């Protein structure tokens, strides 16, 4: 599977979101990463569900990559207009019945992902391996941008890749957290397919967005 890019809108210029979305959409970027937080599962609030919905009709080439860091994530699916082409990642610890949540994502035509935080064991994935389309490995603690990578993250990426390979299924392995210029190639080497790029790479201050996307695309191909 080729390397794919998902720039994080949380790190974009909030006063010029439509312009930045249109720029990304013109650059052959695969996905745009949209973080939703409820200030309960993680102590922060980012993009509102209505904004995540509003992004959908603006996109012509990219798809939405929605990461829901919230308890009972299914309560937001309608408000976000979850549907065909979307990736939707939910956390194991945030769901009362993860089987039901994954089934609802799939029923809406979206790709169902399990997100695992640094302290979440890879073993939790086994029970759901036949029900998912991918796994989001958090290499920082969810909730805030600009954090350093957590120790042991590369080993976790490798363990998830081995799990996917043993399953015989073509699942996407996504990485999110300090996906920097100097680390993304190593993440790719350890088995990552989809890269959430934020303040440590694509949205680094002083860089042209188009040039940054081109550089990252080359590093993860």
Describe what this molecule looks like in 3D.
With 221 residues, this protein is α/β, with parallel strands linked by helices. Helix content is 29%, strand content 19%. It contains 7 helices and 8 strands, in the order βαβαβαβαββαβαβα. It has helices at residues 17-25, 49-55, 77-80, 98-107, 153-167, 184-189, 209-220; strands at 4-7, 31-37, 63-69, 87-91, 111-116, 134-138, 172-176, 194-197. The protein has an 8-stranded parallel β-sheet with strand order 1-8-7-6-5-4-3-2. The chain starts with a strand and ends with a helix. The mean pLDDT is 95.
In what order do the strands lie side by side in the largest sheet?
1-8-7-6-5-4-3-2
Query: pLDDT below 50 for ≥5 consecutive residues: which ranges?
Result: none
Structural class: alpha/beta
Rg computed from alpha carbons, rounded to a whole number of angstroms: 16 Å
Q: What is the average per-residue confidence, as pLDDT, rounded to a whole number?
A: 95
What is the helical fraction, as a range of percent?
25-40%
The portion of residues forming beta strands comes to 15-25%
Largest sheet: 8 strands, parallel
């Amino acid at each position: 599977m080729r390397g794919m890019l998902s720039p994080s809108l949380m790190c974009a210029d909030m006063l010029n979101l439509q312009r930045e979305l249109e720029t990304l959409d013109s650059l052959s970027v695969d996905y745009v990463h949209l973080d939703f937080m409820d200030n309960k599962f993680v102590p922060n609030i980012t993009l509102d569900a209505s904004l995540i919905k509003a992004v959908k009709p603006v996109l012509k080439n990219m798809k939405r990559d929605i990461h829901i860091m919230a308890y009972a994530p299914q309560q937001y699916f309608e408000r976000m207009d979850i549907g065909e082409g979307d990736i939707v990642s939910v956390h194991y610890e945030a769901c009362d019945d993860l089987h039901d949540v994954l089934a609802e994502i799939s029923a809406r035509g979206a790709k169902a992902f399990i997100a695992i935080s640094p302290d979440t064991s890879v073993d939790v994935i086994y029970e759901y391996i036949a029900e998912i389309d991918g796994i989001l490995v958090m290499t920082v603690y969810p909730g805030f941008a600009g954090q350093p990578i957590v120790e042991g993250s590369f080993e976790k990426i490798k363990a998830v890749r081995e799990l996917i390979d043993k399953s015989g299924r073509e699942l996407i392995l996504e990485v999110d957290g300090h996906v920097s210029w100097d680390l993304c190639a190593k993440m790719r080497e350890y088995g990552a397919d989809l890269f959430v790029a934020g303040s440590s790479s694509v949205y680094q201050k002083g860089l042209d967005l188009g040039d940054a996307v081109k550089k990252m695309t080359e590093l993860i191909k």
